[in-house]
Design goal:
By secondary structure, the protein is mostly helical. The chain has 20 helices and seven strands. The protein folds into two domains: 186 residues, Fumarase C, Chain B, domain 1; 271 residues, Up-down Bundle (Fumarase C, Chain A, domain 2). It comes from Nocardioides bruguierae.
Length: 507
């Protein structure tokens, strides 16, 4: 499975299908579990209890109840529902692991999970409950609960109803879980990985859009483009920095505003850091993103479960392991939150420069029509500042925390789910901060009209903003709807598409 396929299923409702090869792998691993279930020697997860109760042997006649009790007791989430795309993402990733033939489930169980995705049935998963070890137990248990016809779900139209009713309306029958199946359904890092993949998708778009916004700010603040020269970037060869600088050069190309102060009499070669160092900060964020994508790719190639069916010495066997620990994913989730906060912080600093007559090089205070009577974009910067402050709080890592659980059997946990939840808020905040920078830079460039025409890419972005409901200079008006319109244009990719419509694909 590719990250693009996950986004298609999780966010856009695409369906799924299990291949015959996958189903045969599922059958082969199930046969191993059946042999263990018949053996006299206890096997963890098959004929024993779980966690701190792993030494308790469970007789055959109690094992269906064991699996059912596991799912019911672990579906202990609390708080608001998580987003539909998050739940569908974790469902798809769990199905992907089941399809590897490493978990020992029956094919009917895997097919039912695929059926829920295909019919748009989304179990209600709660915000709180996962420690990121043994995987995302509580969130996945709420999904497993729906497979046995219990709990609440939302249908394809968003209607909340009992799982049994939703299954019946879709022509699906609940399963009675057999040995190992309950454990196989809930023991994975699927929630945090799904949120990581969605964040990576969004951040790739946002970081390119942040380059566009930064270039427009450099242009509007009469900054120099000389510092973005490829030769200067090459002497510090970070790939993200080079890509970001290339984007800034592309957006600034053929700018009449930049050309108006590029002559020999221009002494401005030391712009403020928020202008001059944009490629260094945006580039570091890009390199962080690439590292996180490498970790995500490894996780996508993994089969996270415990115990797991493996081939040892030519024989399929069941072995315990610690692959469910979420540390690899939790670390990069935290790292991305740091990067998002820093990119947003620099974006806000550029916006603030536009509003201050001591630093905006001839623009009116707060870009107001009639300063004093009008406040212009004064409070838009307040909004940015409040978001950036929150992003700094969200940048505090979750993965350094650990609270022992399960009677000290699970004595070190990753808190990866918490890291993923705060990263989602950080991605949203970054989009809003960049949107306000674009709104500000566009107004400033229009006010700069006597100095020269903005670059073709900047003109295209300004036109997209205006067509999308973001107004230009003028008397004060209700600003919140225009900010929200700018956010929609950023998130949808419309701003980036406008720039790329002139320049071609940006790096």
């Amino acid at each position: 499975m590719t990250p693009e396929q996950l986004v298609a299923v999780a966010r856009h409702g695409a369906g799924v299908r299990l291949s015959q090869e996958c189903l045969e792998s599922v059958d082969a691993s199930r046969a191993v579990i059946e042999r263990l279930a018949d053996a006299e020697r206890p096997a963890y997860g098959v004929s024993t209890g779980f966690g701190a109760l792993a030494t308790t042997h469970i007789p055959r006649e109690q094992r269906a109840r064991l699996q059912r009790s596991l799912v019911r007791s672990h579906a202990a989430g609390s708080g608001p529902e998580v987003e539909r795309e998050v739940t569908r993402g974790l469902m798809l990733l769990r199905l992907s692991t089941l399809a590897t033939g490493r978990t020992g489930v029956r094919r009917e169980t895997a097919l039912l999970l695929a059926g829920l995705l295909e019919h748009g049935i989304t179990p209600v998963v709660r915000e709180h409950g996962s420690l990121g070890c043994s995987g995302d137990l509580a969130p996945l248990s709420h999904v497993a609960l729906a497979l046995i016809g219990e709990g609440e779900v939302r249908d394809a139209g968003g209607r909340l109803l009992p799982a049994a009713q939703a299954l019946a309306e879709a022509g699906l029958a609940p399963v009675e879980l057999a040995e190992k199946e309950g454990l196989a359904l809930i023991n994975g890092t699927d929630g945090m990985l799904g949120m990581l993949l969605l964040a990576l998708h969004d951040l790739r778009l946002l970081l390119r859009t942040a380059d566009v916004a930064a270039a427009m700010s450099v242009e509007g603040l009469l900054g120099t483009d000389r510092v973005f020269a490829a030769e200067l970037q090459a002497i510090r060869p970070h790939p993200g920095q080079a890509a970001s600088a290339a984007n800034l050069r592309a957006v600034l190309a053929d700018s009449g505003v930049v050309a108006s102060h590029r002559g020999e009499d221009c002494t401005r070669v030391q712009d403020a850091y928020s202008l001059r160092c944009a490629p260094q900060v945006h580039g570091a964020a890009r390199d962080t993103l690439d590292h996180a994508a490498t970790v995500a790719a490894r996780e996508l190639a993994s089969a996270v479960d415990n115990p797991v069916v493996v081939e040892l010495d030519g024989e399929l066997r069941v072995e315990s392991n610690g692959n469910f620990h979420g540390a690899p994913v939790a670390y990069v989730l935290d790292f991305l939150a740091i990067a998002a906060a820093d990119v947003a912080s620099m974006s806000e600093r550029r916006s603030d420069r536009f509003l201050d007559t001591a630093r905006n090089h001839g623009l009116p205070p707060f870009l107001a029509e009639d300063p004093g009577v009008d406040s212009g974009l004064m409070i838009a910067q307040y909004t940015q500042a409040s978001i950036v402050s929150e992003l700094k709080r969200l940048a505090a890592p979750a993965s350094v925390d650990s609270i022992p659980s399960s009677a000290m059997q699970e004595d070190h946990v990753s808190m990866g789910w918490g890291a993923a939840r705060k990263l989602r808020r950080a991605v949203d905040g970054l989009a809003r901060v960049v949107a306000i920078e674009l709104l500000t830079a566009a107004r400033a460039l229009e006010l700069r009209a006597p100095a020269g025409r903005p670059s073709p890419a900047s003109v295209a972005v300004i036109d997209a903003l205006r067509a999308g409901g973001v107004g230009g200079p003028g008397e004060d008006r209700w600003l919140s709807p225009e900010i929200e319109a700018a956010v929609v244009l950023v998130r949808s990719g419309a701003v980036l598409e406008a720039a790329e419509g002139v320049l071609g694909p940006l790096a």
